[in-house]
């Protein structure tokens, strides 16, 4: 058994990475967590879902005729600023509308979640009149591929890069080089909060997601017992923030719940399944597991079933409805959370067009999220780096046997 798989401790390498990530948030003063549950009128769907496959790279391009749009007269500015409490994402450039070249990079391709994000990018390209090239690692997380592709797009001089940063620190130098070269950079799903990116296109606030997941597990566990956590990648800044917020809330609100272990599944279903089984064997009193990895949650459910603990070890987190359906049917998974990644991808293109054509985005700005649909922008200070701003899509949506099959039809 590898050290990183031991259920009763985290390997020294993982501890080093985790300490580095968490130490950057030590200065944050946490306010009350948001209460944001229930189904919204506009379905709002989840976080990096993945399956296991061979590693390849591929490109997809969507090209359409440009749409005539009148640019605002806002002066060209550089980046976002929340230091003075100003919740305004400042325009990056002030160019007339044209067929802008967007580049979209998931941190893992050919998985349900990012397939939906890509659908959003392509649909927005058609509707809003831009080009979008999509490229990135496929089958597994590969930071080197991400770095190489961002650097290539920088040399090509694209107008905007939208990237999901699986390893925030590793991608920061390339993101910064792109911004310094005059390219608008938007992070999506996984942020790089130490970089010069302009805005984080965020699915739901990290605090709201943390509260939803830990409260769900507490309800299922009767607010007592040992629980563990399986993250996709310890280098994902907001995922680790969610984890720290969950622990803090559990300590404050559920004192009979004791934290046992954190493990890293690398967004791999089989690895998450193995880790879940090892956690159960190594912690006889374990009665709950959370995974905010799209691959980690179905993998965890698979591991729980393999260990013969379905219904005994409770589980929740984030994943795609299609990945969750069999576990909802079996009763292993009672409830979990998500949002619509198609809307997230679509909105990132709309955000980019605004910021390239001189339009600031403020709290309450109307932004397209799908063909014929708009929603208000929720602008907020980033939880890891309050000097930067995020645009939040909406509250997390609870999925269970009453509504999962509906969403599983398209993701």
Plain-language structure description:
α5 packs across α6. The protein has 411 residues and is an alpha/beta fold. It has 2 domains: 30-37 and 205-338, 3-Layer(aba) Sandwich (Rossmann fold), CATH 3.40.50.2300; 56-204 and 340-394, Response regulator (Rossmann fold, 3-Layer(aba) Sandwich), CATH 3.40.50.2300. The model is unreliable at 1-58 and 60-85 (pLDDT under 50). It is elongated and about 60 Å long. The protein contains 11 helices and 18 strands. The protein has helices at residues 12-23, 112-128, 143-156, 168-180, 206-221, 237-253, 269-282, 296-306, 321-330, 341-356, 404-408, and strands at residues 56-62, 88-89, 101-105, 131-138, 160-163, 184-188, 199-202, 225-231, 257-264, 286-291, 314-317, 336-338, 361-362, 366-370, 373-376, 378-381, 389-392, 397-399.
Relative helix content: 25-40%
Structural class: alpha/beta
By DSSP (H or I, 4+ residues per run), the number of helices equals 11
Mean pLDDT: 84
- End-to-end distance: 34 Å
Question: What strand line-up does the widest sheet have?
Answer: 1-4-3-5-6-7-17-16
The domain count comes to 2
What is shown here, in short?
This protein is α/β, with parallel strands linked by helices. It has eleven helices and 18 strands. It folds into two domains: 30-37 and 205-338, Response regulator (Rossmann fold); 56-204 and 340-394, Rossmann fold, CATH 3.40.50.
């Amino acid at each position: 058994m590898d050290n990183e798989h031991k259920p009763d401790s985290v390997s020294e390498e993982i501890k080093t990475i985790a300490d580095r990530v968490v130490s950057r948030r030590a200065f944050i003063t946490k306010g009350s967590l948001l209460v944001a549950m229930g189904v919204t009128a506009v379905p709002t769907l989840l976080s990096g879902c993945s399956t296991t496959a061979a590693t390849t790279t591929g490109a997809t391009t969507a090209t359409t005729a440009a749409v005539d749009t009148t640019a605002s007269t806002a002066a060209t500015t550089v980046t976002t600023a929340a230091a003075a409490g100003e919740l305004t994402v400042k325009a990056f450039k002030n160019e007339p509308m044209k067929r802008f070249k967007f580049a979209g990079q998931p941190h893992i391709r050919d998985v349900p979640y990012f397939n939906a994000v890509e659908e959003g990018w392509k649909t927005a390209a058609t509707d809003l009149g831009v080009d979008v090239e999509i490229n990135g690692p496929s089958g597994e997380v590969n930071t080197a591929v991400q770095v190489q592709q961002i650097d290539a797009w920088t040399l090509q001089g694209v107008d905007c890069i939208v990237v999901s940063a699986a390893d925030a620190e590793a991608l920061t130098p390339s993101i910064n080089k792109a911004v310094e070269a005059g390219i608008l950079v938007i992070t999506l799903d996984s942020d790089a909060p130490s970089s010069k990116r302009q805005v984080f296109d965020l699915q739901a606030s990290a605090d709201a997601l943390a509260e939803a997941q830990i409260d769900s597990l507490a309800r299922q566990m009767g607010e007592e017992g040992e629980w563990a956590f399986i993250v996709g990648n310890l280098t994902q800044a907001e995922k680790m923030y969610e984890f720290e917020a969950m622990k803090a809330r559990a300590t404050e609100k559920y004192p009979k719940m004791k934290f046992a272990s954190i493990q890293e599944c690398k967004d791999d279903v089989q690895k998450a399944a193995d880790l879940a089984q090892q956690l159960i064997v190594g912690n006889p009193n374990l009665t709950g597991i959370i995974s905010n990895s799209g691959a980690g949650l179905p993998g965890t459910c698979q591991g729980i079933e393999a260990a013969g603990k379905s219904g005994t070890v409770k589980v929740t987190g984030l994943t795609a409805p299609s990945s969750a359906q069999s576990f909802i049917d079996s009763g292993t998974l009672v409830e979990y959370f998500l949002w619509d990644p198609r809307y997230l991808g679509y909105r990132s293109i709309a955000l980019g067009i605004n910021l390239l054509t001189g339009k600031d985005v403020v709290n309450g700005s109307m932004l397209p999220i799908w063909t014929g649909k708009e929603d208000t922008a929720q602008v907020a200070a980033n939880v890891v780096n309050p000097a930067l701003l995020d645009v939040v899509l909406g509250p997390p949506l609870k999925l269970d046997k009453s509504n999962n099959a509906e969403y599983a039809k398209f993701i």
